[in-house]
Amino acid sequence: MEDLGDNKKNRWxxxxxxxxxxxIVAIVLAVFYSRQSNEYKLESLNKSYDYxxxxxxxxxxxxxxxxxxxxxxxxxxxxxxxIEENNFLVTTPGAVHLLQHSELDWEYYxxxxxxxxxxxxxxxxxxxxxxxxGGTSILNYLVYNRGSRHDFDGWAHNGCExxxxxxxxxxxxxxxxxxxxxxxxxxxxxKGGPLKVTESRAMTLVDTFLDAxxxxxxxxxxxxxxxxxxxxxxxxxxxxxxxxxxTYDAFLKPALGRDNLHLSVNSLATKVIFEERRxxxxxxxxxxxxxxxxxxxxxxxxxxxxxxxxxxxLSGIGPKEHLTDMDIMTISDLPVGENLQDHMMSIVYNxxxxxxxxxxxxxxxxxxTMRYLLFGTGSHVTRSRYIHQVTAASLHLLQVSAFQTFxxxxxxxxxxxDMVQHVCQSSPSIPVLGFGT
Length: 437
Ligand SMILES: *[C@@H]1O[C@H](CO)[C@@H](O)[C@H](O)[C@H]1NC(C)=O
Ligand SMILES: *[C@@H]1O[C@H](CO)[C@@H](O)[C@H](O)[C@H]1NC(C)=O
What we know:
Elements: H1 2-34, E1 48-54, H2 58-67, E2 75-78, H3 88-91, H4 96-99, E3 108-109, E4 126-127, H5 149-157, H6 165-175, E5 176-178, E6 195-199, H7 205-215, E7 230-233, E8 235-236, H8 247-252, E9 261-264, E10 267-275, E11 278-286, E12 289-301, H9 304-314, E13 317-318, H10 320-325, E14 332-333, E15 344-351, H11 360-363, H12 366-375, H13 393-397, E16 400-403, E17 417-424
Parallel strand pairs: 1-2, 1-12, 2-9, 5-6, 13-14, 15-17
Antiparallel strand pairs: 3-4, 6-8, 7-16, 10-11, 11-12
This protein binds 2-acetamido-2-deoxy-beta-D-glucopyranose (NAG) (2 copies).
One 2-acetamido-2-deoxy-beta-D-glucopyranose binds next to strand 9.
């Protein structure tokens, strides 16, 4: 009899749980689908601004926010994409795989490569790039890894004044709000800045990876600390609630109320206009109409590694021969578009026979989703990539990072390679296809 009573209670609890879950999921979906087109309500643009920033992405959001801190300065930020407010897929780190290749992504592919990408169809590498306010920080894997100090010092050494590691570090500190207990008090980190940096060890496999590193004689380090050589649990741009914290959330959103800052969305810059060799304004297309705004001080291009050189070339700044081929008048003959660097990444699949990992079914279960919605825990707070039924791994893969410096010099010979470990729970029944990002 007692067993039967317990059973009934269990069933009742289960029914309540399911009802509550269904209601919550319905509310979430309703909010998600009812979000408006998000046309930024800007009655009209001014004729001119002190600064025009092209590209409201990871960098542009910061620039617009910092420049408009001075009330005497007027700023226009142009962004080709729109604002994504209350988009569950954007705020949920575990949904990142649904954002790449979506309407928020420029979805670039390289031309077929001759010496790499042998595992990829047509040897064309896929380059996801954010076409949205907040840019690629809206659809990246949230990794908070600063550049190598050797790269910064190399730029300074080559004449880029003010860009040595010692000179840029204070700006990293000014930005950061780090709440990771192990590192937040180090002199390489700080608290109180707008950019939230947290860590997620949703799975014990992270520690297993770190132990493996130790076994190999590597140091367990802070990847944003003194040296990047070693193994580290990754730090991510994520709020304490486990949600994505893009540069839009961190920098631009709090600044949008300022009178001296205008944001124009759905505005694709097509040309920087020059008088002699001085930039005097920017031409752009909004809602199918061509527009022009003049600038009193500076035009700043922060449209990313692909669009910034593209716009420069459209504006007449680039290799003369190529511009002439394209019927563009050369204003300045410069090697724009060269020396583009990408980091190599190889993906390794391993299967374990254990419960430390998680299948897609488990990851997308209602209880896992509830854990995320209610407590900000569970695998949704980690970045993931579900491939067929083989998963989890990707959950971990980006939670640990290991660096090895190949040369000690400050030369460009420094190389970094990403090795991404996918750990599946049991033997994959479907062959897994490699992909590159
Ligand atoms: C736009 O122009 C108005 C009127 O001159 C001015 O008060 C305002 O600050 C300007 N806003 C920006 C962002 O330039
Ligand atoms: C996985 O582990 C279970 C129980 O520990 C064992 O019965 C099974 O044979 C293992 N499978 C493989 C493929 O090793």
